[in-house]
UniProtKB/TrEMBL annotation:
Belongs to the HisA/HisF family. It comes from Syntrophus gentianae. It is an enzyme of class 4 (lyase). Its EC number is 4.3.2.10. GO terms for cellular component: cytoplasm. This is Imidazole glycerol phosphate synthase subunit HisF. InterPro entries: Aldolase_TIM (IPR013785), His_biosynth (IPR006062), HisF (IPR004651), IGPS_HisA/HisF (IPR050064), RibuloseP-bd_barrel (IPR011060). Pathway: Amino-acid biosynthesis; L-histidine biosynthesis; L-histidine from 5-phospho-alpha-D-ribose 1-diphosphate: step 5/9. SUPFAM superfamilies: Ribulose-phoshate binding barrel (SSF51366). Pfam families: His_biosynth. Its main location: cytoplasm. NCBIfam families: hisF.
């Protein structure tokens, strides 16, 4: 049995760690470099860093902060936001990231996934998916629609169809974020996670909605996720990574225990 992963998410805006609810009302809550170091020391399996306004502002990612985070930790590090070209990917990798997350630009330019996988290997390319539940229609048969530019632009693209296409293009992993659940601390969108996990063969990271360890248990079992992204739970000192892993391990979910 492969170990499940716990991955703190650092949403960064103007150089500050930030947190919102359903992609709105973000407030600044700290220093992303210090947060990354703290979660690494607590036993996180990976760290995800999103420059959440790079795409919507049509600017490059904050590469200096990426470099500082990479220097502070010794675990895999995924970076997303404002990545439009293979050269952007190269800059992020040279700054210390092991993985590149592509989201808005990949939806607008799907060959970017293939180009990135060819240049750096599929294991480096993470497809970020921001998804909203909508009415079932001929265009959106799954009832879940892709939304880009930080939740601002609906695309008319079915989330399940896009996940399958991105896998065929060479994406090595999917980070699946439910806009409806994001920041609510009421639990992950289990149906969405199970739908995507059951229809692709690459790992799926569940994102959006974690508020207590039981939520991670549910998405890692019933949702069939390979990993769980967390933010509010640890940003607001409700739980440590050790607390979460100890609980999940007690539930028979295999964890990497670093202590």
């Amino acid at each position: 049995m492969l170990s499940k992963r716990i991955i703190p998410c650092l949403d960064v805006r103007a150089g500050k760690l930030t947190k919102g609810i359903k992609f709105k009302a973000n407030i600044d809550i700290g220093d992303p470099v210090e947060a990354a170091r703290q979660y690494y020391e607590q036993g996180a399996d990976e760290i995800v860093f999103y420059d959440i306004t790079a795409s919507s502002d049509s600017r490059d990612i904050m590469i200096d902060i990426v470099r500082q985070v990479a220097e502070a930790i010794m675990i895999p590090f995924s970076v997303g936001g404002g990545i439009r070209t293979v050269e952007d990917m190269r800059r992020v990798i040279l700054a210390g990231a092991e993985k590149i997350s592509v989201n808005s630009e990949a939806v607008k330019n799907p060959p970017l996934i293939r180009e990135g996988a060819k240049a750096f290997g599929s294991q480096c390319i993470v497809l970020g998916m921001d998804v909203k539940k909508v009415d079932v229609s001929p265009a959106i048969p799954s009832g879940y629609e892709m939304v880009i530019h930080g939740g601002r632009v609906f695309t008319g693209i079915d989330a399940l169809a896009w996940a399958k296409e991105a896998e065929s293009l060479g994406a090595g992993e999917i980070c699946l974020n439910s806009i409806d659940a994001d920041g609510t601390q009421e639990g992950y969108e289990i149906d969405l996670t199970s739908l995507i996990s059951s229809n692709v063969s690459i790992p799926v990271i569940a994102s959006g909605g974690a508020g207590k360890p039981e939520h991670l248990r549910d998405v890692l079992t019933r949702g069939r996720a390979d990993a769980a992204l967390i933010a509010s739970m640890v940003h607001y000192d409700m739980y440590t990574i050790k607390d979460i892993k100890t609980y999940l391990n007690s539930q028979g979910i295999k964890m990497r225990m670093f202590w």
